[in-house]
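Sequence only, no structure available. Ideas?
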Amino acid sequence: RGRWLFFGDTDGFCRPEMLEEMVSAGERGEADVVVAGWHVVDEGTGFLSERRLPSEWVGAHGAGSCLGGGANLFLDANPAAWNKLFRSEFVRSNGLEHRPGRHAESAFFSCAALARAGRTAFMPSSYYYRRETVPASPDATAQAVREGELPADWLSVFAEVKPLLENGDGRLQAQLFGAAVVQLFRILFA
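Reply:
I predicted one. Tokens follow.
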């Protein structure tokens, strides 16, 4: 119902200023999507690592370009939705929705939004904390497969996003292909 949409996961948390600062950047930059970095909290060891967006993406007021520097929009911005804000009107006008029933259900939404966004604001800060066990153990990978995470889930996500890029910049198509390969190998060889 609001002007901006945020989708958090039950296994994560964010800094108190996250939404205020991201909304402010989105409004200033007239962005459809706002993307920030994130932290990974290893539940096994307590180790904290930060995943920042590539510095060349962050420009004046957080708005910038994601097409330079060898970075990959779909990987470096993260295929999940929890480190992003989405302008409600943009989501509605593009018919974007999560695809329930798949392990990678928010990946389609997030990647499709990034592919369709006219303007994206990139934040220099990391606000969201994702709890996970890093690296995934063979037991955790086997559990994920039993729960439905299969290479085919990610392959279908990227196959559904690909047509959204066909009339656009070829560099984004190459980035999407690279992200698909990385995600497939991550699942197959974790």
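The longest strand covers residues 120-132.
Hope that gets you unstuck.
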